[in-house]
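Support reply, case 0932

Customer input (verbatim):
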Amino acid sequence: MTQHTYQVAARCTDPSHPGATTLIYTTHATSTEEAARKIQALCLDRMSSPGLYRVTQVTKRDPECTCADPGPGGQCAGEPWCLNAEEATAARPGPE
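Our regenerated output:
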């Protein structure tokens, strides 16, 4: 199966937490679901407070896109990042 580059955004579930409200990770995976699972397992579950962040969006970078360093939300110097954004259905819900 072909792997693609995905940008995974996770939002903090506790508004009173002093850390970042949104975290952005990049990973290689074969699907949006796999990308969400990888980030959940590798990064979010290993934090000192598991469940503090929940994956909210997974953006796929198309192979023909030439943007070297995409920003949050799939933007590249004001231009679209050849994105294909989908809600991360594979992410397990965190505490509300």
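We compared this against your earlier run and they match. Two observations from our side: Residues 83-96 have pLDDT under 50 and may be disordered. Residues 51 and 65 are 33 Å apart (CA to CA). Please reopen the case if you see a mismatch on your end.
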